[in-house]
Amino acid sequence: MNDKKSFHMPVSDFREQGKKMVDWIADYLENVENYPVLSQVKPGEIRAQLPASAPTEGESFDAMMKDVNKIIMPGITHWQSPDFFAFFPSNNSAPSILGEMLASGLGVQGMLWATSPAATELETHVLDWVADMLSLPAQFKSTGTGGGVIQDTASTGTLTAILAAREKKNRFMSNDKGVKNGMVAYVSSQTHSSAEKAIKIVGIGKNNLRKIEVDETFAMKPDALEKQIKTDLDNGLVPFFVCASVGTTSSNAIDPVFSIGEICKKYDLWLHIDAAMAGTAAICPEFRPLLNGIELADSFLFNPHKWMFTNFDCDCFFVADRTILINTLSILPEYLKNKATESGAVFDYRDWHVQLGRKFRALKLWFVIRHYGVEGLQFHIRKHVEMAQTFARWVDESNDFILLNQPPLNLVCFYHKNGNEFNKKLMDTINQEGKLFFSHTVLDERFVLRMCIGQTNTDWRHIETAWTIIRETAKKLSES
Ligand code: PLP
Fold it and tell me: Which terminus of the chain has fewer Cβ atoms in its 10 Å neighbourhood, N or C?
């Protein structure tokens, strides 16, 4: 029997290990570009090195960090490498990491205003700042009819929007009686898969999700949307929700939000805007037109955890009429009743999303915005866009590669003229070598390479090296 009185880590050890941890992270970020960007391990390789069962006796922190270095690090794909160009980025930054640390240290669970008033009030306030930074219409602010809330991910944000839309259309009856048959939702063939997943979750059913045709820029065709809505109405169905994308995942296509919004108004459908990555660009006035038409939307989201230097997870979700959201999601069991809630004078964010408990995520966003200032954020966003536009020009000027389209922002889609198999081999070869990591999509049956330039520390030299590697590898493969 162990005769210890406590097994907790003494504060003095925490102090020492905490300082070492900050050093470890600082060293990591300083050296991150020296690692192969894409982890090179085989399936099962990490697990095979872990003991079969949990330790009976506690171990030293030094022993844990030794295993982090030896076992875990080879299994890391380095999202914070400036040579990471795959998917969409998942940024972090020093102020955000510190904010995340502080949130963990405070260990606040901010489900109700009363469970930490500062967590709620800071979040409300920072999201009003964000609404102003993106020049969102007044109804999306807490001082208007709506407001913002931090959700974990865009997927959850879209799920929340669909739930609210469903309830609005059903006059809040489906919460009691179950989902009415025949409800129909609309996305484009390019909308992120999270919308389809949400449609399945909320009980609308995949067969009641219409994937509207896109034009040559891969943006939703409003006339095709309206035609489909009319057909569905003629067939006695109940259209209720449209998701417009500002920056699709495959190619960053921008749906015509204003035209879609007018159709939504005409037929009384909820308009949700998914601007998961591209939304950040609206901080720069020259890119704000991307959101034109947002005044017609019921909800809007973007992810500072993608392209605003804020650690995963942090999705900013805005709604134009918060009463719809709250009426959809509010439930007040006896054990959560409190004076502040009963007074009606506070926001309880548990009523604004699916889960009850919530982390104090506003801290890291607050730190990021205060550290960079709006000017600093604009500087880095503009630089990423400029680098992407330059990369696109290099592609366009080359003899062997073809630019798919003029990138609206920071995602460059292109392909080698040697065809799909060659492009796949080119990407796999480069990613396996580990000097950079980029990804692909398939558009009109064409295997398309995607370079998304949005990692916090990506600079000119990184894109120059990437372009050299891509060209030289293509040349070698063509000659082999
Ligand atoms: N919407 C778009 C346009 C995306 O590109 C993504 C992910 O890349 C998502 C939604 C889902 O994001 P999340 O991981 O925050 O759920």
Answer: N
Alpha carbon of 156 to ligand 1 centroid (Å): 10
Sheet containing 209-212: order of strands: 147-151, 315-319, 299-302, 270-274, 238-245, 183-188, 209-212
* CATH 1.20.1340.10 is held by the domain 11-82: yes
Residues with Cβ within 6 A of ligand 1? 88, 153-155, 192, 194, 245, 247-249, 274, 276-277, 303, 315
Distance 335 CA to ligand 1 centre (A): 35
Of 244, 310, 256, the residue nearest 99 (C-alpha): 310
The confidence band for 1, taking pLDDT boundaries of 50, 70 and 90, is low
Distance CA 145, CA 468 (A): 52
Hey, do 11-82 and 374-479 end up sharing a CATH topology, with the first three levels equal? Answer: no
Q: What predicted TM-score, i.e. pTM, was given to this entire model?
A: 0.96
Burial bucket for residue 48 (CB in 10 Å: 0-12, 13-18, 19+): exposed
CA of 252 to the centre of ligand 1 (A): 12
Q: Which among 168, 160, 237 has a CA at the least distance from the CA of 201? A: 160
Answer whether the bond into residue 400 is a cis peptide, omega within 30°: no
Please choose, from the candidates 295, 398, 294, 330, the residue with its C-alpha nearest in 3D space to the C-alpha of residue 163. Answer: 330
Please report the atom of ligand 1 found closest to the CA of residue 247: 3
What distance in Å separates the CA atoms of residue 212 and residue 203, rounded to the nearest whole number?
20
14 Cα: distance to centroid of ligand 1 (angstroms)? 36
Q: What is the C-alpha separation between 480 and 30, in angstroms, rounded?
A: 37
List pLDDT tens digits, range 444-478. Answer: 999 999 999 999 999 999 999 999 999 999 999 99
Q: Shortest CA distance to 250 belongs to which of 279, 219, 280?
A: 219
Structure-token pair, residue 219: 């943006």
Residue 371 Cα to chain centre, angstroms: 21
Q: What is the pLDDT of residues 124-165, one digit of tens each?
A: 999 999 999 999 999 999 999 999 999 999 999 999 999 999
Render pLDDT for 378-432 as a digit per residue (tens, 0 to 9).
999 999 999 999 999 999 999 999 999 999 999 999 999 999 999 999 999 999 9
CATH superfamily of domain region 374-479:
Aspartate Aminotransferase, domain 1 (3.90.1150.10)
Domains of the chain by residue range: 11-82, 108-359, 374-479
